[in-house]
C-alpha cells in the first residue's frame, strides 16, 4: 500500500523557538516558528531533520529526525515533542525560548485515512505518541471515533489524556503497572481490533512485532489494515545515503522517502 506523499519539495530553514513546555517525563514540547505554507500543508506522520548543534559546531554532525506533534497555524509554528535521549536530542532539549534551530523538511510520507473509515485505533509507545496526537486531532475533526492506547515504562512516561480531544477514549498501559493496565500497549489492542476500521501505530520496533502477534489472529483478510511509522536514523532524509533502509516485500527502500509510514503487512521487521 502506498501511503500519502506530499507533493512539495523539501526545504531547509531556520525556526525560532517560541515556547518550551514540559509534557511527559523528561520530554518537552518545543514550539518552533516555520513558514506558513509548511505549517498549513503538513500531514500527520511527516517529520523534520533538525540540526542539533550550534551552526559553528560539528558535533553531532548529522541532523536528527523528529515527527510533528501538532501544528499551530495561528502562530505559524510546528510543535515537536523532544525526549533527551542521546547527545543530539539532549542539545535540543537544552535550548531556551528565542534560540534558533535549523530544520530540513517536511520529509517523508504521512498516515492516511481510507475514505470510509469511521473508527480508528491508535497504538503509541513512548515518544512514538508524537505523530499520533496530530493524527488523532485530524480524526476527531473528521467526526471519527478514536481509541488511543498508550504504553510507557511507568506513569511519568504517559501523555496526559487532556492533551487529546475530549471525545477520544484513552487507554493507558505501563510496564510496572503504576497507571492503567500492567503490560504493553499492543496487549491492550485485542478488544478493539474487531471494532476498528484502521489501526495506526508508532513506537519502537519490538512494539510492532508484539502488535503483529496480537492483531494478526484477529484480522480477517488483513482487515483492519495497520499503518506503522518506522524509526531509523535519518542521516540525510532525502533518499541519498541509504542509512535508513527498511526491508519490505518489494525489496529494500529508503524509509525517509518511502516511509516512515508503512503498511504493517508490507514491511519485514
Ligand atoms: C521518523 C522519526 C521520527 C521521530 N520522532 C521523534 C519525536 O517526535 N520525538 C523524539 O523524542 N524522538 C523522535 N525520534 C527519535 C529521535 O530521532 C532519536 O531519539 C534521536 O535521533 C537520537 O539522537 P541523539 O543524538 O539524541 O542520540 P545519539 O547520541 O545519536 O544516540 C545515543 C545512543 O542511542 C542509539 N540510538 C540513536 N537513535 C536511536 C533510536 N531512534 N532508537 C534507539 N536507539 C537509538 C545510538 O545508537 C546510540 O547508542 C524520531 C525518529 C524517527 C526516525
Ligand atoms: S536518511 Fe539518507 S537515505 Fe534515508
Quick overview of this protein structure:
With 269 residues, the protein is mostly beta strands. It contains 4 helices and 18 strands.
Question: How do the strands and helices of this protein lay out in sequence?
Answer:
Layout: E1 4-5, E2 11-24, E3 27-33, H1 36-41, E4 47-50, E5 64-67, E6 70-72, E7 77-82, H2 87-93, E8 100-107, E9 109-110, E10 119-125, H3 129-141, E11 145-152, E12 169-174, E13 181-182, E14 198-202, H4 205-215, E15 226-229, E16 245-248, E17 251-254, E18 261-263
Parallel strand pairs: 10-11, 10-14, 11-12, 12-13, 14-15
Antiparallel strand pairs: 1-9, 2-3, 2-8, 3-7, 4-5, 4-8, 6-7, 15-18, 16-17
This protein binds flavin-adenine dinucleotide and FE2/S2 (inorganic) cluster (FES).
Description:
By secondary structure, this protein is mainly β. It has two domains: 4-107, Elongation Factor Tu (Ef-tu), domain 3, CATH 2.40.30.10; 111-229, Rossmann fold (3-Layer(aba) Sandwich). Helices cover 14% and strands 35% of the residues. The chain has four helices and 18 strands. The protein has helices at residues 36-41, 87-93, 129-141, 205-215, and strands at 4-5, 11-24, 27-33, 47-50, 64-67, 70-72, 77-82, 100-107, 109-110, 119-125, 145-152, 169-174, 181-182, 198-202, 226-229, 245-248, 251-254, 261-263. It has a seven-stranded antiparallel sheet with strand order 5-4-8-2-3-7-6. A seven-stranded mixed sheet has the order 13-12-11-10-14-15-18, covered by helices on one side. A hairpin with a 4-residue loop joins strand 6 and strand 7 (77-82). The longest helix is centred in the middle third of the chain and has 13 residues, at 129-141. It is globular. FE2/S2 (inorganic) cluster is lined by residues 234-237, 239-244, 254, 256.
Amino acid at each position: 500500500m502506498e501511503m500519502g506523499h506530499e507533493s512539495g519539495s523539501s526545504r531547509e530553514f531556520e525556526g525560532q523557538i517560541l515556547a518550551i513546555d514540559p509534557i511527559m517525563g523528561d520530554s518537552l514540547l518545543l514550539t518552533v516558528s516555520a513558514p506558513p505554507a509548511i505549517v498549513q500543508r503538513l500531514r500527520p506522520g511527516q517529520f523534520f531533520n533538525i540540526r542539533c548543534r550550534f551552526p559553528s559546531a560539528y558535533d553531532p554532525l548529522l541532523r536528527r529526525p523528529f515527527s510533528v506533534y501538532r501544528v499551530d497555524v495561528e502562530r505559524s509554528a510546528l510543535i515537536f515533542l523532544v525526549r533527551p535521549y542521546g547527545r543530539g536530542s539532549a542539545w535540543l532539549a537544552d535550548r531556551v525560548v528565542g534560540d534558533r534551530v535549523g530544520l530540513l523538511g517536511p520529509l517523508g510520507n504521512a498516515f492516511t485515512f481510507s475514505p470510509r473509515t469511521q473508527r480508528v485505533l491508535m497504538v503509541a509507545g513512548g515518544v512514538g505518541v508524537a505523530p499520533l496526537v496530530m493524527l488523532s486531532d485530524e480524526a476527531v475533526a473528521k467526526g471519527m471515533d478514536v481509541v488511543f492506547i498508550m504504553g510507557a515504562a511507568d506513569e511519568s512516561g504517559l501523555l496526559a489524556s487532556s492533551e487529546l480531544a475530549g471525545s477520544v477514549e484513552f487507554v493507558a498501559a505501563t510496564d510496572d503497572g503504576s497507571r492503567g493496565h500492567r503490560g504493553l500497549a499492543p496487549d491492550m489492542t485485542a478488544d478493539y481490533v474487531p471494532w476498528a476500521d484502521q489501526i495506526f501505530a508508532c513506537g519502537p520496533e519490538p512494539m510492532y512485532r508484539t502488535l503483529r502477534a496480537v492483531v494478526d489472529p484477529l484480522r480477517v483478510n488483513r482487515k483492519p489494515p495497520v499503518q506503522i511509522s518506522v524509526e531509523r536514523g535519518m542521516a540525510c532524509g532525502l533518499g541519498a545515503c541509504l542509512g535508513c533502509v527498511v526491508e519490505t516485500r518489494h525489496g529494500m527502500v529508503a524509509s525517509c522517502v518511502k516511509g516512515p509510514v508503512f503498511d504493517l503487512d508490507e514491511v519485514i521487521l
